[in-house]
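pls design
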């Protein structure tokens, strides 16, 4: 028990009572330095965030661009039927083949879909010409169907003459019958 009282330094006349404690003055200096660095860092951050120099306009433009991207990501996609039960014939070495398909387009912009609708005769003509030039054996494979889907997307975007900023995101097969 006597040893425990010495370890706890209860101030009951032990040898260390008259000596100044070491480390308290050093600890105060460290705390003061850390507080000073936090104050200087906070002031620097406030200067850069609230500064009224010419970089403010570019920062505003950057935040507007970020908001636009976030809005596009948060928007629900708009699906629109492009063609339903669309039948195209094409020649194969064995005779005439038929492809019946239904397509939907997907975009985040109603203006792009409206533009496709406004140019529907040209879009349908482009689809007939594109699909009629396909190879039957290639269309039987998944790779051939995927290639056709990408070609249709490119064709529709080009024929619809989408304006700057308007974009179709995807073309989806909702029906695909090959005979």
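designed seq:
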């Amino acid at each position: 028990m006597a040893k425990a009282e010495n370890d706890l330094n209860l101030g009951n006349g032990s040898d260390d009572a008259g000596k100044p404690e070491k480390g308290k003055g050093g600890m105060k200096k460290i705390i003061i330095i850390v507080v000073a660095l936090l104050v200087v860092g906070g002031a620097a951050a406030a200067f850069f965030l609230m500064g009224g120099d010419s970089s403010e306009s570019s920062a505003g433009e950057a935040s507007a661009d970020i908001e636009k991207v976030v809005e596009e990501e948060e928007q629900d996609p708009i699906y629109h039927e492009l063609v339903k039960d669309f039948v195209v014939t094409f020649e194969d070495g064995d005779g005439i083949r038929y492809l019946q398909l239904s397509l939907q387009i997907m975009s985040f912009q109603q203006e792009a879909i409206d533009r496709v609708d406004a140019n529907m005769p040209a879009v349908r003509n482009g689809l007939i010409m594109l699909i009629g030039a396909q190879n039957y054996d290639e269309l039987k494979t998944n790779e051939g169907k995927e290639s056709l889907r990408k070609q249709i997307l490119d064709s529709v975007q080009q024929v619809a003459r989408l304006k700057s900023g308007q974009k179709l995101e995807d073309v989806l097969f909702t029906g695909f019958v090959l005979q």
